[in-house]
Each structure stands twice: as C-alpha cells, then as structure tokens.
Specification:
single chain; Glutaredoxin; 10 helices; globular
C-alpha cells in the first residue's frame, strides 16, 4: 500500500500514527504538496487532497477517517471510543478550517468564519476528554493526542488560555514521545522517509 501525504498535514499525521499502531511497516510513504495540484495526486484524487491511501488492489481512499477505518476493518469502537474520536476529529477540522482561511486565503481573525472557528476552539478545549499519554495502544487516545497537539502548534495562545491544566500537561508528555517527535512537520521535511519502517 502507498500513503500520499504532505509534511505538514495533521490528517496525514493521523494516518501515519494509525499505521504505526498497527505495525504496517511496509507502508510506502509519498510526500507531496497538494496545493501545487501535482498530476500524480490528481490522477488518483480529482480533489487533489491528501492523505490518500492507494490499496494493494488499486483503490484510492482519500479521507483520513476512512483510511484509518480501512487499515483496521475488524475493530468496532465502543460508544465511549466514538465519543473521543468525534471530539478529536471535530476539534481538528475546526482548527484546520480556521488555519486555511487565515494562512491560505489571507483572511483576518475578524472574518466571520475564522472568528466562529476560533470561538468554537475556545469553547471546546475546556471540555476535552482526558488524554492519557500512557495509553499508547489506544487509537482514540492517540488520535486525541494528535488533534490536541495540532491545536497547540497552530493556535498556541488559544490552547494555553483555554485547555485545562491536565490537558496541557498530558499534551506536553505526548509530544515528547519518539514517534510524535519523528512525525513533527520539521522532522518529516528533513528525513522524508520512504517507508513507515523508517520512522521507528
């Protein structure tokens, strides 16, 4: 299988983390910039979005949540796990929407949609499910960690102001793990691994 992703995409990072938890070490990694609309990506995904998983049988799956589901089809999450997953993914979607409007479209924080997203982050952070950094084998916990860390990286002032102290402490522990360090945007740009196995 091949995973197409960028160095900076938090959605790609989610897929990397999921594959790592499942020990899919032979997963090929292809880094590209979707904003440049590369032909290789457009041929597989007309929306020119990443991440994209190309299965061994040639199907292209290009939604991070569906990719993660495909990688572990036998897992049936509990209601509690789905609640954590729903919070984490919505938090991430909200942060990414605001970030794209600000950084890619050049909108100010007073723009209606940006302001709405940032206000939602401020409301949501105090209500975050508990993050347990020791739960390294739990997909909902790992997803929550990646999504909270993304908010901390993209909007540190909002994270610091609104995340509970236990959340901030847990994210500080989470971001020190070797694998989390190796999937930081700067680290991926430096090493550009060709296989998941190259990210021990």
């Amino acid at each position: 299988m091949k995973l197409y992703l960028s160095h900076t995409s938090p959605y790609g990072r989610l897929c990397l983390t999921r594959a790592r938890l499942l020990n899919l070490n032979d997963l090929e990694l292809h880094f590209l910039d979707p904003w440049q609309n590369p032909g290789e990506l457009e041929a597989l995904n007309p929306f020119s979005q990443i991440p994209l998983l190309l299965t061994d049988s040639g199907e292209a799956i290009y939604n991070s949540h569906l990719i993660c589901q495909y990688l572990a089809p036998e897992e049936v999450p509990s209601a509690a796990e789905l609640a954590v997953t729903a919070y984490a993914t919505t938090l991430l979607d909200t942060a990414v929407q605001a970030f794209k409007l600000e950084k890619k479209a050049g909108e100010s924080r007073e723009h209606f949609l940006v302001k709405r997203c940032l206000e939602a982050l401020a409301r949501a952070l105090p209500l975050a499910p508990a993050l347990h950094p020791a739960a390294r084998e739990s997909w909902p916990q790992m997803m929550l960690g990646v999504c909270l860390l993304t908010v901390k990286l993209r909007y540190p002032e909002i994270f610091t102001a609104y995340a509970r102290s236990d959340t901030q402490q847990a994210v500080s522990v989470f971001e020190q793990w070797d694998f989390v360090q190796r999937t930081q945007p700067e680290a991926l740009q430096t090493q550009a691994p060709a296989m998941l196995a190259d990210l021990p």
